[in-house]
Amino acid sequence: MIIVSAVVDPILISLVLLAVSIIVVGLVLRKLKQPYIIAYILAGLLLGSDGLAIVTDQSLITSLGSFGLILLLFFIGMEICLPSLIANWRISIFGTLAQVIYSIGAVWLIGAALSWPFYRIVMLGFVISLSSTAVVVKLLQDRNETTTKIGQSVIAILLAQDIFVVPMLIILGYLTGEKPELSEMLLQLAGGVVLVVAMFFLIKKDKVKFPFHETIEQDRELQVFVAFALCFGFAIITAFFGLSAALGSFIAGILVSKAKSTAWVHESLHSFRVVFVALFFVSVGMLIDVQFLKENIILILQFVGLVFITNNLINAVVAKYFGQSWKNAIYVGAILAQIGEFSFILGMTGFTSGLITDFTYQLIVSIISISLILSPFWVAIMHKLTHN
Description:
Elements: H1 10-31, H2 36-47, H3 58-79, H4 82-87, H5 89-113, H6 118-129, H7 133-142, H8 149-175, H9 182-204, H10 213-218, H11 220-240, H12 245-258, H13 263-287, H14 290-295, H15 297-321, H16 326-335, H17 342-352, H18 358-387
Helix pairs in contact: 1-2, 2-13, 3-7, 3-12, 3-13, 5-6, 5-8, 5-15, 6-17, 7-8, 8-17, 9-12, 11-12, 11-13, 15-16, 15-18, 16-18, 17-18
């Protein structure tokens, strides 16, 4: 009698359990007419180290989830109207700058009363000024608003925010006394120049032809690898220059859209996008410290409410100044009211450099995570109030 012993990879078990959890929670939320984003985050919370501790390799889930953000921006690049995006450059650059300044000012009002040092006010102002690209883009896609005037303005702001993360990190470095290397700053500047040149090239070109495009369009197997190479290849280039990898994938998406024949790219990568975007939100759920959440739930919810109101107001004022009606401006503010994924990086930078305490860092992580979970509800409420 031959006994066969099978060893099952624990990562495979973790992924299957994640999928089952998402299906179960997703079906419940579908009945309640709520977006799948919440199911993904709750699945991460349920199976993470502070939940049932079934999925403990958070670094793996986070790494896979980061691919989701890259794929998300790649698809947006394919769907975006480039002339409309260029026309929104004022709201993207000056609007984002105003948003950051107003956010620091709002934090200063609280910090002055609590005698916070200047560096903490600046850092927390940076944290709340960034919206979530993943959440916002997913909400726009679910509502079919990606190509609308509101959608174009919001995406322009999100892209500018991704770029603004770099100078924010540099400023935090100066506040902690850790000045960035000149070579690093020059590399990032060179990356910015490359981005501008690439955008100028794409604006001038009516149509782009890929080498062997006729062969690729007939070969479905090759299409998957070509699409992957374009998306992640451009992401690697911008990451090399110290910029957001998602910006590179966005440029790749615009390049593909200029080729006019993009149906095969959508078909090749759509399933991958769904899986990796889900893993991104799962990783957010795994970041939540349940014990800390239970002990400080009232404080966290108070801050989340304050963040939604403050960010909604700031972004609404900015959108109104740049030509939106008050009705649409308030809706734009609601879409951008949550705190984004790059704020996790800013919070971690502040914690490791001693700008904030462990308690403040855990508070920041909890506020960001809860704001991401509640964001679809906030947007739905504000949309109902402004568009009924």
